[in-house]
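We now fix the convention by which a protein and its fold are recorded. The integers have meaning only within a learned vocabulary of local backbone shapes. A record is reproduced here so that you can trace the correspondence yourselves:
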Amino acid sequence: MAAAAAASERVAVRSFQRRKPARRPLPEHLPRERIVYPAPSACPCCGGTLRKLGEDVTETLEVVPRQWKVIEHVREKFSCRCCEAITQPPAPSHPIARGRAGPFLLAHVLFAKYGLRLPLHRRSAAYAREGIELDVSTLADWVGASSATLMPLVEAIRAHVFAAERIHADEPSRSNRSRQGAIPIPCALPPSIRKPPIPVNLVPQAPSPSA
């Protein structure tokens, strides 16, 4: 009886062929560094002359660590031998007046804070591990000054969004909500009913005590 019951509970499963996993090729747009390993100059068996038949190429993905550098903006002074007048090229413009941060560093700090949602104290600790001491107050000053510099761009995006015939407002996810409540995200609708025809999203940020 037990054997019959066990036989009746069996389920037939169709056989299948497991596909062999295939590796996706590495991105073509990445630069390639070619390392050619030296081959023997003569045949290891008989000592005869070798000729190339082909080559086997194995690709490995590698990352170059971030590098810090200091750019020295040099403005040479010259004096006229006739009238003793001193001339000098004008000072270059910086994103922050009298600031020591370059545009790429400021973009990196802003993207880490608003794009990756990383607080400034974590960025300060990460920079310290790389040998760069940047206090949280310094990073906060950079963020504030950069925000003031980018306000004309923000106002242009706002005017572009509100110039559409219809505006769609969506509530952000819980992870993107501010402590003081959710914020609607206005954006222009698809091209069929959007005017002007460029898709833009505007994400306002509510005041928050978090850094």
Notes: Residues 176-183, 189-196 have pLDDT under 50 and may be disordered. Residues 109 and 123 are 8 Å apart (CA to CA).
